[in-house]
Amino acid sequence: MDKLRLEIESSLDKLKPSNVPTRKECLYLFNNLSSALLFCSKYGGNIYTVEVKCEDIYHKADMNILDNIYNIFKITKNNDIRNKIIRKYWNEGAHSFQPCYEFLVKQAQVKKIICEGENNKKLILSEIQKFGNIEKSSIFISALNEN
Known about the structure:
There is one protein chain. With 147 residues, the protein is of the alpha+beta class. 46% of the residues lie in helices and 18% in strands. It is built from 6 helices and 5 strands; from the N terminus they run αβαββααββαα. The strands form 2 sheets. Strands 1-4-3 form a 3-stranded antiparallel beta sheet. It has a two-stranded antiparallel ribbon with strand order 2-5. It is globular. The termini are far apart. The mean pLDDT is 92.
């Protein structure tokens, strides 16, 4: 992670609810394939179909708020402004116009591999560029057809 993202993660950890572990101790899950693929196109990672117990979910948050946090941290060093947007991320129910929900969880059981490997980010980005929409990509369509 670059210096700014480390600073953001540190701020997120400082203002997190006491019942939630640090973000680095959690798995990040999405409730739909489109969101997982879009996340992977930005940050890389692997995509699986998983099963999670409700009691293993620590927090549900809108990933778009994380993008907003990143932009705010680039613009200002004002801690009041920064802390306000960080608190929004931790506020249950806070969301953007088109939320992309991530779930911070303790554990999950893998049911199926959708996409894994070191080149996932590049592969998914090329699919988005080729088809103009993640839902039209071959990865998305083949994952749906397997169900």
